[in-house]
Amino acid sequence: MADYQAPLRDMRFVLNEVFEVSKLWAQLPGLAEVVDEETASAILEEAGKVMAGTIAPLNRSGDEEGCSWTDGVVKTPAGFPAAYNTYAEGGWVGVGGSPEFGGMGMPKVIGAQVEEMVNSANLSFGLYPMLTAGACLSILNHASEELKAQYLPNMYSGVWAGSMCLTEPHAGTDLGIIRTKAEPQADGSYKISGTKIFITGGEHDLTENIIHLVLAKLPDAPAGPKGISLFLVPKVMVNADGSLGEKNTLGCGSIEHKMGIKASATCVMNFDGATGYLIGEVNKGLNAMFTMMNYERLGVGIQGLSLGERSYQNAIEYARDRIQSRAPTGPVAKDKAADPIIVHPDVRRMLLTMKALNEGGRAFSSYVAMQLDTAKYSEDKAVATRAEELVALLTPVAKAFLTDMGLETTVHGQQIFGGHGFIREWGQEQLIRDCRITQIYEGTNGIQSLDLMGRKVVGNGGSFYKHFADEIKTFIAGADANLAEFTAPLKAAVENLDELTNWVLAQAKQNPNEIGAASVEYLQVFGYTAYAYMWALMARTALAKQDQDEFYVSKLGTARFFFARLLPRTQSLTASVKAGSESLYLLDAAQF
Ligand SMILES: Cc1cc2nc3c(=O)[nH]c(=O)nc-3n(C[C@H](O)[C@H](O)[C@H](O)COP(=O)(O)OP(=O)(O)OC[C@H]3O[C@@H](n4cnc5c(N)ncnc54)[C@H](O)[C@@H]3O)c2cc1C
């Protein structure tokens, strides 16, 4: 496997040249003092070094060894605890954390690049700090000042880790039916009892304490999602002076044996009257979780991109080296027995598909991260609200489309290796195994599609969608004539999405099955159209600089490939959406 190299050049291109992100930071009071182009560049460079030098070398060995469980104690693979210390000491766990509690206070758009790097280097490893950062967000936004002061500093510094305990054996997608109970105590705390499954980082040997955020129901809670509350439940109790006290009454019953992310401990967690503290209001636990979810879901989308990037780095090196057969147009490497496989049209198709989807995904996830930053920091109410609505709309697209594209790209990356891609030694098969979970957890991609269509499009009569479509149309209207080769197909794509959105809004009124029948393909049409916008923006920058550097020539070529070969996929997807739900219900359950 090729050594991992952080794609810093492309990250800088996206942030500084395409989005000119420092102009945004300068306008946002919470960021203007904290970050500029130079600081951001130094942070990304340092992150790239740590990920490539310390984290990536443990990816294969971590997969081979996996985690182990003995009598409730979970051991991560060799090298993980030491690497985790390096990572934590570098401040990377708290990169986006609030400076008031010791976080670095970096914007999400920087955090997103760091997440991409750590997950490319080693997704299993990256999950431990990611869950901690997610837990911190819920605590920061919803917990009491006392809990924040007591827990956040040690979590941002990575001394303690976090976990998110939602899923139960009978309740995954449908959290309204969870059974974990929370009994109020005289001192204001709660006793938490129940079993959670599939808990990432529920137990491990990386930190001295793990702070679990647990969804549970009070005895008199209303049925369904409106009866769920959120609790902070430490593995080890924390004394008033911050020192560690007794072990709490909870434990890890076992760990799962999985298809991928084997070095990430996926735990069954048993809470036996464990002491917990309410976060936010009683019965509003899902709201408190949602704060974290837009960040987390974008993060999971980025995991798909990360694995696609790693796979591409391996595949391009292999395609330049491996010689097989002659080019269709005649020998290229005349001194060799055969030509490098990069001469073959099909290998180029796969490589360019990977490159176009990865770079489009990097731009899109950065765009969504900028909306998150605008929503969080803008003091202009209208600007912040628009950004919030864009985040709501685009988050399910980012989660599902980036991870679907992650699977496609990692499979291409394997295919380029031929039979060697199927062999463990080359690492390409691990990337596919690791990628598969990204389409499933944090809400399956099917559920993301329903969220997009049901809540984010139909739920507000298309008003969130209009922000995005209008922005694209404004860009097209203002673009120079020399961009027409990109703006013309982008215009057609956004008009198609407009039409499809209106079609779906109309259908949804007539038959409740239409939303679910259309949603997956609709999300994909949305994703390709969003990437077309990203590619047109990138092409605009690259066109102006193509004489300066090969990088821009490569960018333009990839943009042309995207518009010629990938965007047309929207046509068949559109036809599928418009076929409606009827054919899905021709069989009754027994006829399958
Ligand atoms: C490795 C791993 C790590 C995980 N980490 C965590 C964690 O840290 N914390 C945590 O709480 N959970 C975690 N999970 C759980 C994960 O989020 C759930 O598995 C996921 O949300 C799906 O729930 P489920 O498995 O119960 O599937 P189900 O909810 O049973 O779904 C089964 C299928 O039915 C579909 N489906 C369900 N409802 C609908 C509907 N209304 N419309 C259409 N289709 C529907 C789903 O899309 C899916 O295809 C993890 C899971 C794994 C495997």
Describe this structure in words.
This protein is globular. The protein has helices at 8-18, 21-27, 29-32, 37-55, 59-65, 80-89, 108-121, 123-142, 145-156, 285-321, 345-377, 381-415, 428-436, 445-457, 463-478, 484-510, 513-545, 550-566, 569-578, and strands at 68-70, 73-75, 160-165, 181-184, 190-200, 209-216, 229-234, 236-238, 244-247, 250-255, 266-279. The mean pLDDT is 96. The longest helix is centred in the middle third of the chain and has 37 residues, at 285-321. The strands form three sheets. Strands 3, 4, 5, 6, 7, 10 and 11 form a seven-stranded mixed beta sheet that branches. The chain has a two-stranded antiparallel sheet with strand order 1-2. Helix 7 (108-121) crosses helix 10 (285-321). A hairpin with a 5-residue loop joins strand 8 (236-238) and strand 9. The chain has 19 helices and eleven strands. With 592 residues, it is an alpha+beta fold. Bound molecules: flavin-adenine dinucleotide. Residues 164-167, 172-173, 198-200, 258, 266, 437, 440-444, 446-447, 450, 516 line the site of flavin-adenine dinucleotide.
Q: Topology of this protein?
A:
Elements: H1 8-18, H2 21-27, H3 29-32, H4 37-55, H5 59-65, E1 68-70, E2 73-75, H6 80-89, H7 108-121, H8 123-142, H9 145-156, E3 160-165, E4 181-184, E5 190-200, E6 209-216, E7 229-234, E8 236-238, E9 244-247, E10 250-255, E11 266-279, H10 285-321, H11 345-377, H12 381-415, H13 428-436, H14 445-457, H15 463-478, H16 484-510, H17 513-545, H18 550-566, H19 569-578
Helix pairs in contact: 1-11, 4-7, 7-8, 7-10, 7-11, 8-9, 8-10, 10-11, 10-12, 10-13, 11-12, 11-17, 11-18, 12-13, 12-14, 12-15, 12-17, 14-17, 15-16, 16-17, 16-19, 17-18, 17-19
The site of flavin-adenine dinucleotide has 21 residues, from strand 3, strand 5 and helix 14.
